[in-house]
From TrEMBL:
Organism: Flavobacterium alkalisoli
Residue stretches in coiled coil: none
Protein name per the record: Cell envelope integrity protein CreD
Transmembrane portions of the chain: 15-34, 317-336, 342-362, 369-390, 396-415, 420-439
Pfam families (UniProt xref): CreD
Superkingdom to which the source organism belongs: Bacteria
Signal peptide: none
Length: 455
């Protein structure tokens, strides 16, 4: 006599799918804690890097050299005598300043970047030593546009001004040669709160004596200890700049991109050519010098994707890894009719989450690739051995190990890609879905767990 035992709801595939799905959602809680740990370590790295940069030298912003010429204007005040009703005018003189940019500005910038020289504990900062050379020429300032009398211009009190950030990182003295005279820059103890720049200014000179020719040349050098980036305002009527560096991943930012920028192994030459017609400011200002820090050409020296960013990107695929791994175990359970307890699913899920803690802890002391390989191998071996004891054979655990290895390899490829990450990820998920549909096409979901007894 043959009888069929009636299948209870909790032994049905529907109930098992619900329980596995709920467990997957519950495992998102420890996965979120792992993401928080990665974020915390990343923030700690940023704090240490900022502290290193403050002591070594921050980012460099340079704006100059600017010719500064004082002139006198008069403020007339109307005065009326109350008794005689006589009206007189009093003239009160006060000093204003005119700022003139060079006609031609050429700069040559050599940057030596070292990402390993400044470390604290396991963290490192990208710092550099830069040597900047500026040369060009000035013409005699023209005050005709403001109708200022020549006798009101203090030609013998003219100075040269530069505005820059990171004066802490300036190495040695800064001297400029204008015509046949050499002048030394001194700090003016004035800080612009809007742009966080400091002023360096020379002692006065008589430009009527220096500017005898139509064009008066100037030349000066300045050396910085800096970090992160260099930005320069192209104030010349025609600005030419060349930058050479040994950094392999430059980031060109600002308002002007280089006309030539090729990465050659461990160095890159970049060149800019900027006309005064390309920028929204003039060659001279009277009264107040505006903040032009928004109109720069800039080069950044950063690590494109560090281990924390890559670990964070890997953790974003945690739900996918857990879900697909559980799905593989569930299909194997359904096909082989081997019962897998929900507790065993939980152990497998925790092992998958441990991958990310292993990953971040190992990559802090080695490369991301090495950390990823070690963490993936450890988790695959652990789950493979655990599945042998669950499934009681070697065929299905081998399939699980191969599937997990392929999944981790697929995610690693996606993490390394930038431009094609979405395309490769979409194609990969489509193929995974197709494989799951193929292997599950002949499963009888109604009778796959029904038990038959012979009497």
């Amino acid at each position: 006599m043959e009888t069929n035992e009636k299948q209870g709801f909790f032994q049905s595939n529907t109930a098992k799918i619900i329980m596995v799905g709920l467990l997957t959602l519950i495992l998102l809680i420890p996965l979120q804690f792992v993401k928080s740990l990665i974020f915390e370590r990343s923030q700690r790295q940023k704090e240490v890097v900022e502290e290193i940069n403050q002591k070594w030298g921050g980012s460099v912003s340079f704006y100059g050299p600017i010719l500064k010429v004082p002139y006198t204007i008069y403020d007339e005040t109307r005065v009326e005598n109350e008794k005689t009703k006589q009206v007189t005018y009093q003239r009160t003189p006060y000093t204003e300043y005119a700022y003139f940019f060079p006609d031609e500005l050429k700069s040559n910038i050599d940057v030596d970047v070292d990402s390993d020289s400044k470390k604290r504990s396991i963290y490192k900062s990208v710092v550099y030593t830069s040597k900047l050379n500026f040369k060009g020429n000035y013409s005699l300032p023209d005050f005709s546009s403001k109708k200022i009398d020549a006798q009101n211009i203090d030609w013998d009190q003219a100075t040269v001004l530069i505005k820059t950030t990171n004066i802490k990182g300036i190495q040695g003295g800064v001297h400029i040669k204008v015509g046949d005279r050499t002048l030394t820059f001194e700090p003016t103890a004035q800080l612009s709160t809007s742009s966080n720049t400091s002023d360096l200014e020379t002692s006065p000179m008589d430009i009527r004596e220096l500017f005898k020719d139509e064009k008066t040349p100037f030349n000066f050098d300045i050396e910085y200890h800096g970090s992160e980036n260099i930005s320069i305002v192209p104030i010349g009527k025609q600005t030419e700049a060349t930058m050479n560096s040994n950094w392999h991943s430059p980031s060109f930012k600002g308002n002007f991109l280089p006309k030539t920028a090729t990465v050659e192994g461990q160095s890159f030459p970049a060149q800019w050519s900027i006309s005064y017609l390309n920028r929204p400011f003039t060659q001279q200002y009277f009264g107040t010098l505006p903040n032009l820090s928004d109109y720069t050409f800039e080069t950044g020296f950063i690590i494109p994707v560090d281990e924390y960013q890559q670990s964070e990107r890997a953790a974003k695929y945690g739900f996918l890894v857990i879900g697909l791994t559980f799905l593989v175990f569930f299909l194997i359970q359904t096909i082989s009719k081997v019962s897998i307890h929900i507790f065993q699913y939980g152990m497998i899920g925790l092992a998958l989450i441990m991958f990310y803690t292993l990953l971040i802890s190992i990559t802090e002391h080695s490369s991301f690739m090495l950390g990823y390989v070690i963490a993936a191998v450890a988790v695959v071996v652990m789950i493979g051995l655990y599945s042998v004891s669950i499934l009681k054979n070697a065929k299905f655990p081998l399939f699980i190990a191969i599937s997990l290895s392929a999944l981790y390899s697929f995610i690693y490829v996606i993490i390394q890609l930038e431009d094609y990450a979405l395309l490769v990820g979409s194609i990969g998920l489509f193929l995974i879905l197709g494989a799951i549909m193929y292997f599950s096409r002949k499963i009888d979901w109604n009778n796959s767990t029904a038990q038959t007894a012979n009497a």
